[in-house]
Each structure stands twice: as C-alpha cells, then as structure tokens.
Amino acid sequence: VQLQESGPGLVKPSQTLSLTCTVSGGSITTNYYYWSWIRQPPGKGLQWMGAITYSGSTYYSPSLKSRTSISRDNAKNTVYLEMNNLKFEDTAVYYCAGASALTMVPEQYDYWGQGTQVTVSS
Q1: Is the CB of residue 116 less than 8 Å from the CB of residue 9?
Q2: For 89-108, what is each residue's pLDDT tens digit?
Q3: How far apart are CA 42 and CA 1, in angstroms?
C-alpha cells in the first residue's frame, strides 16, 4: 500500500488548507482500517490531527476539531484534509497514514505517505 500526499506548499494566514492523500495498492474502505492525518511542526514531535474510518466515521483531535475536516472519495480511493483559519503555527510537514486501529501512536501505523510541507506565511 502506498500513500501520496499533495497540496499547496504555501498558504497565507486565515486561509483554508486543502490536502489530498491518494491511496494505491489497497482500498480506503478495507474493513477495520483507519486513515489518519498527522503533522510535525519544525522542531516538534508528531501530532495526530484526526482520522476517517473504513465506514466513513471521523474523529478529530480536540485541539483542532473546530478547524479541521476529514473526508474521502471512495471512487478515487482518496482521503482529504481541510483546515480553515490557518495560523503561523500550522506550519508543518503533513502526513497521511494508515493503521488497523484508531490510534495516535506513530509506531502502530502500517503505512505512511512521504509527507508534504505546508508553510503558513504572509
């Protein structure tokens, strides 16, 4: 299974970020599988942002829930992240990852994308 993130590298403050994670070699509707967005700000650890399950249910980090939305397109085998009202501190490398459990533990993920850099700057 391979994951590929894509999106704009540079976003202005207060704008909305839209990222795409295209999954190949496996289906995002595979039973009991979970697809998460995880980010890593410069000099900091990994931060779990949220996930969408095999059935389409979504879960979010409480600290980001008000600004984040995760969705999917089954036909395109793609998972999306949308985050509004971007702030400078949202600058990070954004990853999508897949796991057989709803987890925030990086070691429990089976698959990772290569990550995409997002910089919030005016």
Answers
A1: yes
A2: 999 999 999 999 999 898 99
A3: 27
CA distance 14 to 11: 9
Place of tokens 């925030």: 104
Tokens of 30: 């595979």
- Token digits for 57? 């249910």
Residues near 43 by beta carbon (within 8 Å), at least 6 away in sequence: none
pLDDT tens figures, 41-94: 999 999 999 999 999 999 999 999 999 999 999 999 999 999 999 999 999 999
SS3 106: helix
